[in-house]
Amino acid sequence: MENGRLLSLVVLNFEQFWTQSRSSVMAGSLAASAFFHGPGSSPAASARSSKNTTGELPENLSVRGIVAKPNPPPGAMQVKAQAQALPKVNGTKVNLKTTSPDKEDIIPYSAPKTFYNQLPDWSMLLAAVTTIFLAAEKQWTLLDWKPKKPDMLVDTFGFGRIIQDGLVFRQNFLIRSYEIGADRTASIETLMNHLQETALNHVKTAGLLGDGFGATPEMSKRNLIWVVSKIQLLVERYPSWGDMVQVDTWVAAAGKNGMRRDWHVRDYNSGQTILRATSVWVMMNKNTRRLSKMPDEVRAEIGPYFNGHSAITEEQGEKLPKPGSTFDGTDTKQFTRKGLTPKWSDLDVNQHVNNVKYIGWILESAPISILEKHELASMTLDYRKECGRDSVLQSLTTVSGECVDGNTESSIQCDHLLQLESGADIVKAHTEWRPKRAQGEGNMGFFPAETRQL
Amino acid sequence: MLRCHTPPQCRPAVGAGAVLMRRREMAARCCAAPRVSGVEAASAVEGGGGEKRTTTMAERLRMGSLLEDGLSYKESFIVRCYEVGINKTATVETIANLLQEVGCNHAQSVGFSTDGFATTTTMRKLGLIWVTNRMHIEIYKYPAWGDVVEIETWCQEDGRIGTRRDWILKDLANGEVIGRATSKWVMMNQNTRRLQRVSDEVRDEVFVHCPKTPRLAFPEENNGSLKKIPILTDPAQHSRLGLVPRRADLDMNQHVNNVTYIGWVLESIPQDIIDSHELQTITLDYRRECQHDDIVDSLTYIEEGEEKSSNGSAFAAPHPEEQRQFLHCLRFAGNGDEINRGRTVWRKLAR
């Protein structure tokens, strides 16, 4: 078949190309980008992961499978289809002249350095190259894959890694279709979920994961767990389906007994900030449910990771209104949603409601008129009490008066209260909303121009 | 019938050339940019002109791709911490979300419209949309936080009025099949809400990228995905009433997402089953759609009798005594109209 012949030609001439390159690693990366650049092909993912490693092809990716695929040539050329290409790029010279003695017959034929004039049809070359990377993809997916230890691989699947001398943890997330909300951008819950995931992965990658979510070994010994007491978020833009976001997270001290965890989320492609957040955590005994001071042993475990940098500066933090602050002078309107109950999927391994779920409930009582035309610009949350499977909650939202009539020009402020129907406060929050940006900005053109419901 | 909000089917907006066309563009780009490492190449090519829509960073970075024959699509996902439930393994809702995601990505990779209605040009002209009829998921081994799941999906014709989408889930680490799923879809006129036969015109557009010979995730006879779910009239043994859709449960078209129904079905399972068993199979028949202001009751009935041992699937739990089976009904709290019917099979957890 034409395909087979051209495939061999392509492979052979890349052999020339490889053996002429200065270093095998360079060859690997160039080969990688030349061969394997395509949608979803995993060596491209290695490029995605970090800027400082180039094309890390897996050790045992064999190109043999690629060339063996097409039918052997009809005999017009003395080219054996089984070219044994071994792109063992890590430190060894990439060399196609390997075990098969038949290869010696092939070499003289491939003497011409440029093969463009050899091709009967340019489109056939493209088809051939396509077949190569498709098959390479297939090879890749069949590899002996052991993703159990996240530090083994670059961030191919979003394991994340520690950067900046151990002080910052970075992880990437691709926004999935079910993570976007009714307005086709990632919901605030999705973004908060990513923050939670990176926090845990940071602890895990730093080797500090004890038993239970986020507790260090010294904490687990003492039955201590972290509980969040306050979160502040500033959102600058919302990503869309298919966007890749990069989340950086680090920790610092918060007073004598608390820990602060900050996040900075950027769009991976453009580097623009998506959101910045800071949170304060305190320790609680999981049996007595009482707050605890930080034991010295725990401080010794986590102290080395403290990084003084702040995602949200003190000034910015001060400017954010505190939950419960009253609006003076203007009329306010109150909205309520009752009968909110946790589902099984809202519970974490300790059968407590995951703290990200509260945000969804808080927003349940926000009037739809705000949600349709505005987006959340900032949020401050004070966590007061936890709730479990059998709790029944109600969500109250107080909106500052001038905005309720659907004025889309100004920003809106809301105060929120999530409480048990029996009275106790679970979370208090304050939100600021700004008018939504125009559609079409940065949504990658996936959706048709007309919006169906907004 | 439930509106097809989310997983678009495999249908090309243009003819058979679409896939090859995109592949050529891919190839052209990669040949053109050999100098730089992957990331810069991506941006350089993106910025350097060429079609705006075809290859975005996300597509290049997407972990999934069509298989060589172009007839199915495979993608891998890592299980994130917030997708894990009380058993420290992924919840069935997470699995359902991933199935939906890979279905969407399949459609997107062959160039389909992804406006949530997943229609071809002809379908749009005729005002037709796809709606889900039935969803059947079997999970043999739930993945844990950090595990990577590889999902392959494809779709094909199913009778005269329908299409089906099948999935196979594997643990990427060892290639073991950890789950299978299938779903049935029918075509409906958006305005009259009546079912419509798949005309030849639409068939050509839709099924060119589907296997011609039937390929079933559940090839065995009398498998669970074919079993009927009867109407339930007796009082339910267990129930959870007054379930309310949250904003997050609504899809882009303001209807309750298919996956939310799974969560509601599980709500009326008694606590002792949740604590001691693991969901092995769930089958849902979709009958009506549900919106933000509706209130839903979830009812559970124990299914006894010969059903328990007739599950001859090779992948089923080996000891029927360790299985529990239930039938479910989700209905509107107000008028009692059925929203969904379901069946679940649970296997004992080896604690």
From TrEMBL, chain A:
Listed GO MF terms: acyl carrier activity; fatty acyl-[ACP] hydrolase activity
Keyword Chloroplast in the entry? The reply is yes
- Location of the protein in the cell: Plastid, Chloroplast
Q: Where is the Acyl-ACP-thioesterase N-terminal domain?
A: 26-155
* Enzyme Commission number(s): 3.1.2.-
Q: Where is each Acyl-ACP thioesterase-like C-terminal domain found?
A: 331-434
Q: Name one GO cellular component term.
A: chloroplast
What EC class does the entry list?
A: hydrolase
- Reply yes or no: does the keyword Plastid apply: yes
Pfam families named among the record's database cross-references: Acyl-ACP_TE, Acyl-ACP_TE_C, Acyl-thio_N
Residue ranges constituting the Acyl-ACP thioesterase N-terminal hotdog domain according to the UniProt record: 166-302
SUPFAM superfamilies, per this entry? Answer: Thioesterase/thiol ester dehydrase-isomerase
Q: Which UniProt keywords apply?
A: Chloroplast, Fatty acid biosynthesis, Fatty acid metabolism, Hydrolase, Lipid biosynthesis, Lipid metabolism, Plastid, Transit peptide
Q: Which family does it belong to?
A: Belongs to the acyl-ACP thioesterase family.
The free-text function statement in the UniProt record for this protein reads: Plays an essential role in chain termination during de novo fatty acid synthesis.
Q: What is this protein called?
A: Acyl-[acyl-carrier-protein] hydrolase
Q: Species lineage, top-down? A: Eukaryota, Viridiplantae, Streptophyta, Embryophyta, Tracheophyta
UniProtKB/TrEMBL annotation, chain B:
Acyl-ACP thioesterase N-terminal hotdog domain residues: 70-205
Q: What class of enzyme is it?
A: hydrolase
Cell location? Plastid, Chloroplast
Q: Where is each Acyl-ACP thioesterase-like C-terminal domain found?
A: 236-348
Report the SUPFAM superfamilies cross-referenced here. Answer: Thioesterase/thiol ester dehydrase-isomerase
Q: Which GO terms describe its molecular function?
A: acyl carrier activity; fatty acyl-[ACP] hydrolase activity
Which Gene Ontology terms of cellular component type are present? chloroplast
What is the top-level taxon of the source organism?
A: Eukaryota
- Please give the chief subcellular localization of this protein: plastid
Say what the protein does: Plays an essential role in chain termination during de novo fatty acid synthesis.
Name this polypeptide is given: Acyl-[acyl-carrier-protein] hydrolase
What is the species listed in this Swiss-Prot or TrEMBL entry?
Answer: Leersia perrieri
Highest classification ranks of the organism: Eukaryota, Viridiplantae, Streptophyta, Embryophyta, Tracheophyta
